[in-house]
Amino acid sequence: MVYERYGGPEVLTLREVPRPIPSRGEVLVEVVATSVNLSDWEGLRGRPGYARFGGLIRPARQTLGSDIAGRIVAIGEGVSRFVVGDEVFGDNLTRKGGFAEYAVAPESALTHKPKELSFAEASTIPQAGAIASQAVALATPGSRMLINGAGGGSGSFMVQLASAKGVHVTAVDNAGKQDFLRVLGADATLDYRRDDFTRTGPYDLIVDLVASRSIFAFRRALAKGGRCVVIGGTSRAVLRMVTVGRLLGVLTRAHLGLLIVRQGPAGFASVARSCASGDLDIHIDRVFSLSEVPAALAWHGEGRARGKVVVAVREG
């Protein structure tokens, strides 16, 4: 599934392309399943502006899809951790290419798939799991945490992890996801279309996956010495967080900034183990075929998915 210009799902085209060849340190993966992330939706549209890094005028990578799960069918020189036939999964963020039958990925981006998980289940973990586990690591038992955008992939893992840690969780998303958020373990829920979460609280930790509010609004909702981290959102919100937010934090003894997520298997390994053992639930909202990638991206991008959206490229 390729695109040559930024836009909506209508710019995507299913096309036959040459099978990629792995270079040194890379492997070729026969993709079984790929999950959809917010980064795919942003990369498709070229918005916010940071989604165009490396491709200001047109997409640098013409096939989206970074969270992949599949089987290795070829290896490049220098690869030592895998052999042909290994079942693997990981976040191929630098190369993307998951919305295809085959994708090339750096050896370092992948790890062996737990046998307890299907390919579809494994594909939901890498990016969302890394974000969730590293965000929840900032919370302490008994603290008050708010998650904005809690009903999506990262949020669905985050709510469960925080609840299990003994954190009081307030989850924010649209009205259609309120019951789902409570099932995940949220202690309180807010409908962002009706409730301004920055006028609630105070919270010890705010994690905003879709930031759009002002720095001063975030600060208003924080407890003394509290922390607010942004993971995604508008370019303006992100820019203000790293500039004005840092200054405001110094002046008010709060902590405002971006969550810099550690990439690679080490970043999501703990979530994968919890999913494989059954301690953490994987919520797949819908499964689409490769030809339905435009619909899959729209379903996710328009905020309708409860948990993860998966593209099944082939039968596992």
Task: Write a compact overview of the structure shown.
By secondary structure, this protein is of the alpha/beta class.
Describe this structure as you would to a colleague:
The protein is α/β, with parallel strands linked by helices. Helices cover 28% and strands 24% of the residues. The chain is built from ten helices and 13 strands. Strands 1, 2, 3, 4, 5, 12 and 13 form a seven-stranded mixed beta sheet that branches. Strands 8-7-6-9-10-11 form a six-stranded parallel beta sheet. Helix 6 links the parallel strand 9 and strand 10. Helix 1 crosses helix 10, helix 3 packs parallel to helix 4 and helix 3 crosses helix 9. It is globular and about 55 Å long. The protein starts with 25 loop residues before the first strand and ends with a strand.
What is the terminal-to-terminal distance?
Answer: 20 Å
| Helix/strand class | alpha/beta
**What is the number of beta strands?**
13
Q: What is the ordering of alpha helices and beta strands?
A: EHEEEEHHEHEHEEHEHHEHEHE
In DSSP terms (H or I, runs of 4 or more residues), the helix count works out at 10
How much β-strand is present in the residues?
15-25%
Rounded to the nearest angstrom, the radius of gyration is: 19 Å
Q: Which helices and strands appear, and what pairs or packs with what?
A:
Elements: E1 26-35, H1 38-45, E2 67-75, E3 87-91, E4 102-106, E5 110-112, H2 119-123, H3 126-136, E6 144-148, H4 153-164, E7 168-173, H5 178-184, E8 188-191, E9 203-208, H6 215-221, E10 222-230, H7 235-242, H8 244-252, E11 255-258, H9 265-277, E12 284-289, H10 293-301, E13 308-312
Parallel strand pairs: 6-7, 6-9, 7-8, 9-10, 10-11, 12-13
Antiparallel strand pairs: 1-2, 1-4, 1-13, 2-3, 3-5
Helix pairs in contact: 1-10, 3-4, 3-9
